[in-house]
Every structure is written in structure tokens, then in C-alpha cells.
Design brief:
3 helices; 82% helix
Length: 65
């Protein structure tokens, strides 16, 4: 996900997306453990997306105070 796409989402959508990505990361870790993960870079990209979403959520919280 690009940062511009993330900034266009509302806070509720960001929280939903974050939970979806965390679930996806869990599944990817499980596949990696079993040796079934074809592209290990997917885990890295999902982690980065989660971090981006958390950063935007924090910015939104600080901006409203």
C-alpha cells in the first residue's frame, strides 16, 4: 500500500485494515514455519504496511488534540 492510499482512509477503515494485515501476517508466519511460503518478502511488506498504518493513526490522534 502506498502512503497516499493510507492517508485517504478514515480512522475506522485504518483500524480494520490493521487487523486484516495482522491476521495476514500471522498466516504468512505460519506458512513460513511450515515451509510453504513462496515469497518471504510478503512478510516484510505486510510489516511495513502495518507500521505505516500505525504511524498515520498516531498522526491523526495528535492532530485532533
Amino acid at each position: 500500500m502506498k502512503i497516499s492510499e493510507i492517508r485517504d482512509l478514515s480512522a475506522e477503515e485504518l483500524k480494520t485494515k490493521e487487523t486484516e494485515l495482522k491476521d495476514q501476517l500471522f498466516k504468512l508466519k505460519f506458512q513460513h514455519t511450515l515451509g510453504q511460503l513462496e515469497n518471504p518478502l510478503k512478510m516484510k511488506n505486510v510489516k511495513k504496511d502495518i507500521a505505516r498504518i500505525k504511524t498515520i493513526l498516531i498522526e491523526m490522534e495528535k492532530g485532533t488534540k
